[in-house]
N-acetylmuramoyl-L-alanine amidase (Streptomyces malaysiensis), 677 residues
Amino acid sequence: MPESAQDSAHDANRDPSGPTRRTTLRTAGAAASAAFLLPLVAATPAAHADQSRAEGAEGPPADGGALQRAFAAAAAEYGVPLSVLLGVSYLQSRWDGHRGAPSVTGGYGPMHLTDAHTALLGAPHHSQGTEDARGDLARPLRVPKATVPEPRRLPARLRTLGRAAELTGLSAEALRGDESANVRGGAALLAAAQKRLGLPRSEDPADWYAAVAAYSGADDATAAGVFADEVYSVIRGGASRTTADGERVSLDAAPAVAPDTRQLRTLGLASPARDPRVEAPKDVSCEWLPAPYEEFGDNDYGNHDLGERPSSQSIDYIVIHDTEGSWDTTLKLVQDPTYVSWQYTLRSSDGHIAQHVPLKDVAWHAGNWYVNAKSIGLEHEGFLTAPDAWYTEAMYRSSARLVRYLAKRFDIPLDRQHILGHDNVPGTTTGTIPGMHTDPGPYWDWAHYFTLLGAPFQRTAGSSGGLVTIRPDYDTNRPVYTDCETAGQACAPHGSAAVRLHTAPSADAPLVKDIGLRPDGSDSTTGVNDTGARATTGQQFAVAGHEGDWTAIWYLGQRAWFQNPKRRPTAVSAKGLVVTPKGGAAEVAVYGRAYPEKEAYPEGVPVQAVSPLPYKLLAGQSYPLGLRTRGEYLWATTFDPAGHKVVRGQDVYYQIQFGHRVAFVRAADVTVRRSGK
């Protein structure tokens, strides 16, 4: 979820914005999810044909794998068309069982049967740690405290596993941990929905539209319909992939399938028109649930700032968060004026979206005021503490559609210098670095996400290109993480988008250190929330050497090594522009925000310090250039926006990929050149 949302970094030729504000959170109040939903839309694009666990990976024949046979057997047992069962499962888990590990919302197995009664966090994302989501040092530090209501009864969409147990006679343990049993449970739920709706057990997949829509658990017709449309898009386009456990599963394309969408009425769900204030593509389900803009005691206000973006400041970033709280709790919090804010929340079960803050305004979510002023924040529902293991395909797809829409509207490049995780946002000053948040973490599948965005990470140069793009195979890349459930204990094995960085080309060598994260010089760890020695899929770094199966990169002012064997590479070659210290300079200062020089501030606007971080870019090192921008600061500390002011300076900054988080250097201090030989 969002951090201190106001100090934000911005892209070249984009406007940095000002402070976000935040106050002590009162117990979240009124909640009711409003239902302003868009009209039902046409089916979405087909699934990619082959999303295998590794390029060129071999697998068993499509009709011979145990999981493929389990789908066929369950479809026959419960009278559900095989394509319907496979399509629903693909949109939930891409057919992965995740070895019994639950999703971020307590869903299990290929059918995402939910059993979330023990998975709620005690504190939501923005109430954890010391990060101020505004990130504006012009305001007092505020870390909101929230009392999360214990629900008397979780919504039905978060407890489908119990219903599946009743229908099949199988134990909850089997439904959670045995993939064949899990598939039977999902088939039973679909068949029961078809019967409840008074519809025949037809062999024609087109006759199952309402049951598929009901499987989403959505409480309105638009969200249920969009989910069903996605499933039928998969059915029409077909899909084939090898799961993380080596199971090859295929769904043959059936382009002629035309479901009877009129069946949606049998669900009896409300279908209000889309609110005109919603800013989202037409092929997603999105409601308007506004965050408040209110003034309260001691000249305080919340929970965002009014603006006129992009005319006042350019929007350069989209920041990916996870909520670390349930959908209902998250919606209550964002409606509290004393809490913080973000633009969108996305629901796990069906990908439904709620918009809270107009895109012209500045939300408080990233922990960096410069980034807040230049960004849009997306919160993805996820509240499982141990660990945030996997996210549903429905949410990935909905998020990708939204990001594509936003990127096109605001001319935001689809790369990892502009599409940031909250864990990639830099601290604004040395003192804020240890408190910066680490979501969505190493289990967010950036490679799959960017494939859905239409911008997959690919080789762009030969071995002499001078850069590498981190790209391990998500399913088979399983570094050991600790501290998911118990301090010091290993997390359950799971695919990861990150590689670990060492001081020498050996797995026994110490991990590289992050002096900002640990000012005492102590070692980085394997902790799931420790980003000190981690490079993540899609990030680019300058090559600093090769030795055997190991590649070195420049990282936080030091040479860092990661395992990159030719037979199973974890990165691909790339080329581009890099920055290096100007001739004669031994080192260059690095910053967490691109603020103007002091001469740029008009009377009445306090000068904000241009504070270097504790790192140094040393002579002989180079770092990939992400964007170029002039220094900029949004002064916004009053409820009345008439007092707000965008300060623009003459100093030019370059954003670089410096470590796991991005950073800035002054253009006057560095030379820009092409990477490689």
